[in-house]
């Protein structure tokens, strides 16, 4: 049981940016927390139901078939915010992955190392019912309905684990650099490259499906508007995945993405993660192009202080 105080436990609602339970958890430095299901308000459940109902037809039209299989395997409740313990009861036997509640932002290394260990840090708040269309930060609808169904697929799950292994290799690599200025410069560039790779694949990736394109990226899969836009809009540039381009391509999070990359298959995606590590070990991630995303001090510190002894 969390040490969250009584006042926070009796508060009503787990609405994003308006949940005392979460704010107190952050204040106490609690990163991994419980999911206090009794705190979800009726409006929280209504928000989930509204999001789920309107996006379901677009999933069937644009989502990767493995994602749709995952939704079915997880038996997501269309009417109420899901319990993570129920999700994990279905998920863990399939790929070893589990969803674990967090209080908010997870520094980069800790996030990547969690997925290496088949644990997905999961936000438990949900956006306000009156603001369904855009949220600049993750919520449980993004994390559970966007990410977790793909975690039921063994090959995609292996991709995430492999990505976590690359992060671990990066921590080993920079730990050997004695010059602190050089160490920080290289680490900043490596994290930027990894973030861009993750963004243009796991978050906003497209994949070939026969002669058509479909969506496997969670940022698109959890967005009602961007699902159609990503596949249908003539304003989107869609290119075959080119890793050298991806790691040097900045992105912005506050609008629909104007540039997306296409992989051929989950095997192709796995191979590209292997290539990411090869580029890193050859020093080709040490000076990627500047621009977004910015790497914050917490992310740098998480790699520099990573426990890489095991």
Task: Please describe what this structure looks like.
The chain has 310 residues and is an alpha/beta fold. It has one domain (13-304): Orthogonal Bundle (Phenylalanine Hydroxylase), CATH 1.10.800. The protein has 14 helices and 6 strands. It has helices at residues 6-10, 20-27, 42-62, 65-74, 84-95, 108-116, 140-147, 154-175, 180-203, 218-221, 224-232, 243-246, 266-281, 297-304; strands at residues 98-102, 119-123, 206-209, 212-215, 237-240, 259-263. Strands 4-3-6-5 form a 4-stranded mixed sheet. Strands 1-2 form a two-stranded parallel ribbon. Helix 3 (42-62) packs parallel to helix 11, helix 6 packs across helix 8 and helix 8 (154-175) packs parallel to helix 13 (266-281). The radius of gyration is 19 Å and the shape is globular. Residues 1-11 have low confidence and may be disordered.
């Amino acid at each position: 049981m969390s040490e969250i105080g009584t006042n926070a436990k009796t508060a009503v609602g787990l609405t994003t940016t308006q949940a005392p339970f979460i704010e107190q958890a952050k204040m106490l430095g609690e990163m991994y927390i419980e999911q206090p299901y009794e705190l979800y308000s009726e409006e929280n459940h209504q928000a989930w139901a509204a999001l789920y109902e309107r996006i379901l037809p677009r999933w069937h039209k644009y989502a990767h078939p493995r994602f749709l299989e995952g939704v079915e395997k997880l038996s997501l409740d269309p009417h109420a915010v899901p319990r993570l313990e129920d999700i994990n009861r279905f998920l863990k036997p399939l790929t070893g992955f589990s969803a674990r509640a967090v209080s908010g932002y997870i520094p980069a290394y800790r996030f990547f190392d969690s997925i290496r260990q088949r644990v997905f840090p999961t936000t438990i708040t949900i956006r306000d019912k009156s603001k369904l269309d855009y949220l600049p930060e993750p919520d449980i609808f993004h994390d559970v309905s966007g990410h977790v169904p793909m975690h039921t697929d063994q090959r995609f799950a292996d991709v995430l684990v492999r990505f976590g292994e690359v992060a671990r290799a990066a921590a080993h690599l920079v730990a050997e650099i004695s010059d602190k200025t050089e160490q920080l410069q290289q680490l900043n560039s490596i994290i930027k490259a990894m973030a861009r790779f993750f963004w243009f694949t796991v978050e906003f990736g497209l994949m070939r499906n026969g002669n058509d394109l479909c969506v496997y990226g969670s940022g698109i899969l959890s967005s009602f508007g961007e699902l159609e836009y990503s596949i249908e809009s003539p304003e989107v540039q869609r290119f075959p995945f080119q890793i050298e381009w991806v790691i040097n391509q900045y992105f912005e999070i506050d609008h629909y993405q104007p540039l997306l990359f296409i992989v051929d298959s989950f095997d192709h995606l796995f191979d590209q993660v292997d290539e990411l590590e090869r580029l890193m070990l050859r020093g080709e991630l040490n000076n990627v192009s500047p621009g977004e995303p910015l790497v914050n001090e917490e992310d740098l510190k998480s790699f520099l202080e990573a426990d890489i002894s095991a």
